[in-house]
Amino acid sequence: MKKHKNSKLSMLIIICGVFYFLFFIFGYQQNLITYKNTKLKDIKLKIEEEKSISKKLLAEKSNINSDEYIEKTAREKLGMLKNDETIFVDTNKWTTTTIKE
Fold first, then answer.
1. Alpha-carbon distance 85 to 99, whole Å?
2. Which pLDDT score is estimated for 35?
3. What's the confidence (pLDDT) of residue 90?
4. How many Cα atoms sit within 13 Å of 86 on the Cβ side?
5. Do the beta carbons of residue 63 and residue 78 sit within 8 Å?
6. How far from 65 is each of 35, 54, 55, 77, CA to CA, in Å?
7. How far is CA 18 from CA 21, 87, 89, in A?
8. All structural domains of the chain with their residue ranges
9. CA-CA distance, 28 to 40, in Å (whole number)?
10. pLDDT of residue 31
């Protein structure tokens, strides 16, 4: 009779241990899946941003030899003017204005 009680108690402890182990494993797996899904979303967002940058660069590449692009770059980066333009500086605003003559 006593042996029968011990085997039931042992079986109950084993079953509880198995359920605890399964609960722990599934909980860990769910957290891991959630983490990986978040990372996947972040990577997909980064890919879309990089595609957008790539499209802009390809558009700029196709326009790089155009007269408009060269003129814009000369004005903005080199501060160059056309022959018939004069620069006026408004000392009150500290900005530069270009006027064609």
1. 6
2. 94
3. 67
4. 2
5. no
6. 47, 18, 17, 16
7. 5, 83, 82
8. 1-46
9. 18
10. 87
What is the band of 56 on the pLDDT scale with cuts at 50, 70, 90? very high
Token pair for residue 87?
């620069």
CA–CA distance, 4 with 10 (Å, rounded to integer): 10
Q: Which helix (H) or strand (E) holds 64?
A: none
pLDDT band at residue 62 under the 50/70/90 scheme: confident
Please compute the mean of the pLDDT values over residues 8-25 and round it to a whole number. Answer: 85
Q: CA-to-CA distance for 71 and 67, rounded, in angstroms?
A: 6
Cβ contact 97:87 at 8 Å? yes
Quick check: 4 pLDDT over 70?
Answer: no
Residue 55 in this model has a pLDDT that exceeds 60: yes
Question: What gap in Å lies between CA 74 and CA 101, rounded to an integer?
Answer: 19
CB-count exposure of residue 75 (10 Å: 0-12, 13-18, 19+):
middle
